[in-house]
Amino acid sequence: MLNVPFIKASRAQFLSTLQARIDHQQNTFVVTANPEIVMYAHQHADYLRLLQHADFVTPDGVGILDGAKILGDPLPERITGFDTMTALLTWGSDHHKAAYFVGAKPEVIDFLRDILPSHYPGLNIVGLRDGYFTDEQAVADDIAAKQPDMVFAALGFPKQEHFIAIHRQAVNGLWMGVGGSFDALAGTVPRAPEFWQKHHLEWAYRTLKEPKRLKRIAVIPRYLRLVRQQAKH
Ligand code: UDP
């Protein structure tokens, strides 16, 4: 879609693919992309190349499913960063995997430090640091020293994808950009209730809760126009 290669898989299929790759210590870069990310990539060639070099780009956002339908090649379902991360944390807790968390505000990280061990008792939490660091190399060195099975980067796009692309060789594990998922995990930004999600209105709920999101959905008409143009070719 607009040169971004989305995977075509169910959530369950994708999750077992990731688990197998983590078990085999395969270096894996996952991007969960919404229309805003696709539009940003459309306007920034270096970011587009970065997405094209990721191992998996998943459809995070109903706008991507709509776009795939317009292109006549529908995708089975949304695969969000938040859902994938929490599923991997549960699995990681059951299988004693090591996880590294980098991103979000210091107070969110402090809160996660308190709650994560009881939520995921078997998980080996080898790093928890906020995303407002100045010495990026020091963060990368720490990740390299800890050798986690999974690195979750919640720095927002495009920062988190740039960070992963530059440092992913430090660890042969999973590297995934998860946007605002640490905030959601900490409960500082509530997830849309089931009803809104089922009716594909999560974006509306989040916009009501957080008006700054209006900027994000503002790209959707232009995005759909570009996808329709692509469909004609
Ligand atoms: N963030 C960060 N470092 C930065 C800029 C942002 O750690 O330099 C964090 C921010 O605190 C938030 C996340 O990145 O937790 C971005 O969330 P946002 O809601 O903007 O992203 P989305 O969920 O839409 O991808």
TrEMBL record:
<dbReference type="InterPro" id="IPR034714">
    <property type="entry name" value="TagA_TarA"/>
</dbReference>
<dbReference type="GO" id="GO:0047244">
    <property type="term" value="F:N-acetylglucosaminyldiphosphoundecaprenol N-acetyl-beta-D-mannosaminyltransferase activity"/>
</dbReference>
<comment type="similarity">
    <text>Belongs to the glycosyltransferase 26 family. TagA/TarA subfamily.</text>
</comment>
<keyword id="KW-0961">Cell wall biogenesis/degradation</keyword>
<dbReference type="Pfam" id="PF03808">
    <property type="entry name" value="Glyco_tran_WecG"/>
</dbReference>
<comment type="pathway">
    <text>Cell wall biogenesis; teichoic acid biosynthesis.</text>
</comment>
<dbReference type="InterPro" id="IPR004629">
    <property type="entry name" value="WecG_TagA_CpsF"/>
</dbReference>
<comment type="function">
    <text>Catalyzes the conversion of GlcNAc-PP-undecaprenol into ManNAc-GlcNAc-PP-undecaprenol, the first committed lipid intermediate in the de novo synthesis of teichoic acid.</text>
</comment>
<dbReference type="GO" id="GO:0019350">
    <property type="term" value="P:teichoic acid biosynthetic process"/>
</dbReference>
<keyword id="KW-0328">Glycosyltransferase</keyword>
<dbReference type="GO" id="GO:0071555">
    <property type="term" value="P:cell wall organization"/>
</dbReference>
<keyword id="KW-0808">Transferase</keyword>
<protein>
    <recommendedName>
        <fullName>N-acetylglucosaminyldiphosphoundecaprenol N-acetyl-beta-D-mannosaminyltransferase</fullName>
        <ecNumber>2.4.1.187</ecNumber>
    </recommendedName>
</protein>
<keyword id="KW-0777">Teichoic acid biosynthesis</keyword>
